[in-house]
Amino acid sequence: MHAMQYEITLHADYDMGVIRDRVAAKGPLLDDFPGLGIKAYLIRERGENSPVNQYAPFYLWSTPQGMNSFLWGPGFQGIVRDFGRPEVRHWAGLSYEEGPSSKALPRTATRRRVPVPASAAPADAVGAALEESSRLAKAPGAVATALAVDPRHWELIHFTLWDRLAPEEPGERFEVLHLSQPGRGDLRKGRQW
Fold this sequence. Notes:
The chain has 193 residues and is of the alpha+beta class. The chain is built from four helices and eleven strands, in the order E-E-H-E-E-E-H-H-E-E-H-E-E-E-E.
């Protein structure tokens, strides 16, 4: 599993209806994309628990070929054409779990980035993060949760989809506009090694 996200931060008075319309029109185009486990079309709106207007889709890829097909294909080129080339963050998958609300469509998502201190043993940090991810996966309203790591910058990321307003968990909160999940069943459950 590979996790990926790019953030497009928009100006303070940007009409987020434009993004909502874009997702309504283009979101279903990835509903059968090969190699894609999940794409959550996420937004944050300034003044609604967010300091910025932002479009920030989050992906869980079941194959690297799928991720590469997307990045070098017409879908991502449309983002580049319309918004400029965003920085694409990428993390190696550590775990994936379905939650008690796995059959529900998610309404919100949380993302928490956690730096691994230089003084911490990487295996110990990952072990603690796996326990936290397991706790999130069992929380009421959890649809699915993933844990991933960027070993270049030593950053862990917890990503959870919720069937309701996200609980008071640390991290950024997003609204889910659409969920493409053609290969959700192909995402290996549990620890990824």
